[in-house]
Write a structure and sequence with these properties.
20 helices
């Protein structure tokens, strides 16, 4: 089989997976392995595709096979770290990334992934997280050739503020779905918005963004070229929407292409980069004292850092709670399995023990994998829970996923990495979410949503309180029904879904921030 032919066959396999024809997908992947199993690139590509669609055990076999063929090739090591993360084995993930960084200390993707991985890890302290972020920031500045001077600020009195948004996720991704309506709602008399899109996906969300602002496709630009484009566009405030998540262009910010640079929306911790002038949060995500976790100054928006708009294909109405027609309560979580560590499973087992005959539905693409499903069932069995009470569902199309909330009475939030868009969608489908906010910003996302919509009582202060809140809800099916039927109106009336109000507060925030960096003479002329 030639390289061209296996690549074509792998593309066909990917199309099958995208259409949810997973048996065909797996058969086509196996056919490539059978015919070209000693081609390192072929096996690596197959492993990466298997991993992308949740088939962890098959992916691991591919990467281990590559290690046997080429022991000095570090690519399998990084992918094995990603598999460990998806399984919630954060100690192993940390070990593998540390090993990779020993050999490739300047590899930007490995450094970024290693830093992001600590946000999922319950055993990493705040001091360790800050130290690792600062080390990344120092590295990024060094890679950029040292600290760059702040570009000159220009007067605003006769023109709109030029805001540039940088992201690899301006598509049907959490960030794209949150930001698209903000871009559309900008007051063009006050703000001129630019989007610098570094992502590979171009879909209906991308189309909305294209119509809403000046759109730059920057996938082909390196850091220097992107910085030059931002300078040429005379951006006043440059907003990073990615942090250290996939496809990030945060290293561009070390080149200081704009006079004011901000972190917002797509990340949930310090960037570690001194060239970022502010991080935009709110009082629920960042209570007093959170400053100790950040290199950047914190700006707290008064009405929350997120603004939620349901996807247009969401079900028109929330279904009634399933416990009305069944004789048991069903809990659920549709969160990324990287968030499901042993402490989460242990607490959820307490919930299942406290509510007799209750069930738990977990859904994520990694539950496509039979070996992983078995390991999760074994974990619950060791905690005294009959695996028959725990249903594990694999991937589905987004519209179908939303319909599956009809099977859940109460959503359980993981920790320390809580739900973001997942929690908003559960609430929109009428399902109350019980959360346990902790010290990290990322542990307080659902907590912030619940406060915004007037349900702070669903935020627990400790494990015991979490179980108390869940069992109280489970014992009151009438209240669950009332909560569910009124949830959408509650959300529509809240600041969480006030697109115009949110956009105005964001504009005021960025304009005030920009003016705050102006020399006194220019500021008095505004």
């Amino acid at each position: 089989m030639t390289s061209t032919s296996w690549q074509a066959q792998l593309q066909a396999a990917q199309r099958a997976a995208q259409e949810a024809r997973f048996d065909t997908f797996l058969a086509q992947c196996q056919a490539i392995l059978d015919q070209h199993g000693n081609d390192i690139d072929a096996v690596l590509h197959i492993g990466s595709v298997l991993l992308a669609f949740g088939f962890l055990s098959g992916a691991r076999k591919c990467f281990l096979h590559v290690q046997s063929l080429a022991p000095r090739d570090l690519r399998p090591l990084v992918n094995l770290a990603n598999i460990a993360q998806q399984q919630g084995d954060h100690a192993e993930c940390r070990r593998l990334y540390a090993s990779a960084l020993q050999h490739l200390s300047n590899h930007p993707v490995i450094r970024r992934n290693a830093l992001l991985s600590v946000e999922y890890d319950p055993d990493i302290t705040n001091a360790m997280r800050l130290s690792e972020a600062q080390a990344w920031g120092d590295w990024a500045v060094a890679q950029a050739g040292g600290i760059k001077p702040r570009p000159e600020l220009r007067r605003l009195h006769d023109r709109p503020l030029r805001i540039g948004y940088v992201s690899a996720d301006l598509c049907q991704h959490t960030v794209g779905l949150f930001v698209k309506d903000i871009l559309s709602a900008h007051d063009t008399s006050r703000v001129a918005a630019y989007a610098y899109s570094a992502g590979q996906v171009d879909d209906w969300v991308t189309a909305v963004v294209r119509r809403s602002c000046t759109f730059r496709d920057v996938r082909a630009l390196d850091d220097l070229a992107l910085a030059a484009q931002i300078c040429a566009d005379e951006i006043d405030v440059l907003v990073d929407l990615s942090g250290h998540t996939g496809g990030s262009r945060l290293t561009v910010f070390a080149h200081r292409p704009a006079p004011v640079q901000v972190s917002w929306l797509g990340y949930f911790a310090t960037t570690g980069l001194s060239a970022i002038d502010a991080v935009i949060l709110d009082e629920w995500h960042a209570p007093p004292g959170t400053e100790a976790q950040f290199v950047e100054p914190i700006i707290r928006l008064p009405h929350g850092r997120f603004c939620y708009t349901p996807v247009p294909f969401a079900p028109a109405e929330a279904a009634p709670p399933p416990s009305i027609t069944k004789d048991y309560i069903t809990f659920g979580s549709f969160n990324n399995t990287a968030k499901l560590n042993h402490q989460v499973f242990a607490l959820w087992a307490q919930v299942l023990h406290a509510v007799p005959d209750s069930r738990l539905i977990l859904k994520w693409r990694t539950f496509q994998d039979a070996e992983f499903r078995q390991s999760v069932h074994q974990t619950f069995a060791a905690l005294g829970i009959d695996p028959q009470r725990v249903e594990l569902r694999g991937a589905s199309f987004h519209a179908d996923l939303l319909k599956e909330y009809a099977d859940i009475d109460i959503a359980l939030d993981p920790f320390p990495f809580t739900g973001g868009l997942t929690s908003c969608e559960a609430l929109w489908m009428g399902v109350p979410v019980v959360t346990w906010p902790q010290g990290r910003v990322v542990s307080r996302q659902t907590h912030a949503f619940l406060h915004a919509i007037g349900l702070p009582e669903l935020s627990a202060c400790d494990e015991e309180d979490y179980v108390r809140i869940v069992t109280g809800l489970a014992q009151d099916v009438t209240y669950l029904s009332e909560l569910r039927s009124g949830m959408r109106e509650r959300m529509r009336a809240s600041t969480l879904m006030d697109t115009q109000g949110f956009t105005r507060q964001l504009e005021r925030c960025l304009i005030d921030l920009y003016r705050g960096f102006m020399p006194d003479l220019l500021r008095t002329q505004q």
